[in-house]
């Protein structure tokens, strides 16, 4: 299946080859929005009401696809995905309405890879407006930290900063370590988020309420105490504080990336 600029049911774009140069400089188009959706609420944004934007979700993250309304609106080839979490369907390269569900736990390894490529594509192409309240079933990731996962010191985490191609790339937010190897365009040397690879970048991400392009390496630290009282002014997503902006990023990372451990 391709993105809706061509016929359905072909291969999605490779996650390592950005197709949209206008967005390739910062990968994820913007900081996640604050909205939280039930399936019923998401269904209201299915393209049938021209006064509302068109949304769809993948792996619990909600994207605004209104810029491609002609592809997702009623009667179009991709209308089946609008207003739904289409994780299983996109992983299966299926256009069947019955497959447009959030639960992707039955996908095999190849289908999971297909789904992850689609997630990488949507991250680059569309704004994130929020997350689903009812998170999808997860097969290869988890939002909880089990005792069997690795504990990292800052020095140990720094080894996974992308400079050694034989090692995965990790990043930490609020003490939780995520594997972001699937996005070398963002986290490998030269990428927008490369300065944060191998580090707990909680403070920097909280300060980035207006998107990844506002992240600066001088703000890389794990202490987020200063975020509590600082208000966000002029943000289209209107988080009340920078700490809330950080929480939005955490919710996004929990659904988009595999948790591999936590900081000591």
UniProtKB/TrEMBL annotation:
Region (Disordered), start-end ranges: 1-24
Domain called Cytochrome b5 heme-binding: residue spans: 37-133, 152-237
Compositionally biased spans, kind Low complexity: 1-13
Molecular functions per Gene Ontology: heme binding
InterPro entries documented for this protein: Cyt_B5-like_heme/steroid-bd (IPR001199), Cyt_B5-like_heme/steroid_sf (IPR036400), MAPR/NEUFC/NENF-like (IPR050577)
GO cellular component: endomembrane system; membrane
SMART domains per UniProt: Cyt-b5
Gene3D superfamilies: Cytochrome b5-like heme/steroid binding domain
Entry similarity comment: Belongs to the cytochrome b5 family. MAPR subfamily.
Name this protein carries in UniProt: Cytochrome b5 heme-binding domain-containing protein
């Amino acid at each position: 299946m391709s993105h809706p600029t061509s016929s359905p049911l072909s291969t999605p774009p490779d996650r390592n080859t950005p197709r949209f140069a206008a967005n390739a400089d910062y990968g994820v188009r913007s900081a996640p929005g604050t909205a939280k959706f039930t399936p019923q609420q998401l269904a209201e944004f299915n393209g049938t009401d021209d006064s509302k934007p068109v949304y769809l979700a993948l792996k619990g993250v909600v994207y605004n696809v209104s810029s491609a309304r002609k592809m997702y609106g009623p009667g179009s080839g991709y209308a089946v995905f609008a207003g739904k979490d289409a994780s299983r369907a996109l992983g299966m390269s299926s256009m069947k309405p019955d497959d447009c569900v959030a639960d992707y736990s039955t996908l095999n390894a190849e289908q999971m890879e297909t789904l992850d490529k689609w997630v990488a594509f949507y991250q680059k192409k569309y704004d994130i407006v929020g997350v689903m309240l009812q998170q999808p079933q997860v097969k290869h990731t988890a939002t909880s930290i089990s005792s069997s996962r690795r504990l990292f010191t800052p020095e140990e985490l720094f080894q996974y900063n992308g400079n050694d191609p034989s090692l995965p790339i990790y990043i930490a937010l609020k003490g939780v370590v995520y594997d972001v190897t699937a996005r070398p365009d963002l986290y490998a040397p030269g990428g927008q988020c490369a300065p944060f690879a191998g580090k707990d970048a909680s403070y920097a991400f909280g300060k980035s309420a207006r998107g990844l392009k506002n992240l600066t390496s001088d703000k890389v630290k794990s202490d987020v105490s200063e975020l509590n009282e600082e208000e966000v002014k002029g943000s289209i997503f209107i988080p009340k504080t920078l700490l809330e902006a950080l929480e939005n990023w955490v919710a996004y990372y929990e659904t988009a990336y595999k948790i591999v451990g936590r900081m000591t």
